[in-house]
Amino acid sequence: MKNSVLAVIALLSASLFAQDVPELYSAPVKKVQVGDKRMAYKVFGKGSPLLMIAGYGSPLESWDPYVVSALSKEFTVIVFDNRGIGRSTTSNATPSIELFAKDAADLVRTIGFEKVSVMGWSMGGYIAQEFALKYPELTGKLILLSTSCGGSESIPPSDEKISMLQNMGDPEVLLKVLFLTDWTLAHLEVAARFTGSSSQEESGDQRGISDQYTAAGSWSGTFERLKSIESETIIITGTDDIIVPAKNSLILAEAIENSWLVRLNNGRHGAIYQFPEKIAGLLIAFLK
Questions:
Q1: CATH code for position 149
Q2: C-beta of residue 121 within 8 angstroms of C-beta of residue 269
Q3: Chain segment 231-264, per-residue pLDDT in tens
Q4: Signed CA dihedral, 179, 63, 99, 255: sign only
Q5: What's the structural domain count of the chain?
Q6: Which of 60, 101, 156, 253 could form a Cys-Cys staple with 131, CB 3.0–4.6 A?
Q7: What is the dihedral of CA 267, 270, 272, 278, to 10 degrees?
């Protein structure tokens, strides 16, 4: 079941790159040597630093442009390409979620930040949890968006939803995965960002994507360790997420002692694209 879910997320991730690159990302990419690889990143704004960890197969441009712009007016926003994705290189190290968290921590130290708040979306939420657990001295506040604790304790999509997701090459099916139909019809300009032609070959380095697939599939999750998270945490989920069912957010919220839970009514896995103003407002209030 887990491998089927990951394959579906790969298709979803590839679709996100059909959208036009927002003006916010026209600034030159910075690159820095981090251990045995070069990592690509960009920094916007000023104020307390926020590290944003993208999801499966997603380069730094996959974030919603409104959310990044709004946050950068209040904070120093750091977005980056995970190893092997976009413009970041990789190495021969065995891929794992823990390794990706180490990459993020090493990047933070290398570019000169002593502590950052951390936000992770989908698989990026796996990495963010490991970051907070393994590097508490680097972690300010924690934001978990459309994600789960992983492992056997997490709740996978139903078999019916998996069957639906297998046909995501059809734009109509893809939009049903991302958004409720009524919402899509009312926001055609947003829906148009996800229906252009794309492919996994265009969306990222194939080895990087394969490594992320391996890492996510072998991750044992954080369920038994969630109570050790020291950071104040906000968990945001869409009530109708069919990739990471909303019940996963309750598992996280019940286990992380200093946590807040926000459930966005009618939100699916694309909740950050559905409710950018609301999510940005929540995050600004939480991080201040």
A1: 3.40.50.1820
A2: no
A3: 999 999 999 999 899 999 999 999 999 999 999 9
A4: negative
A5: 1
A6: 101
A7: -20
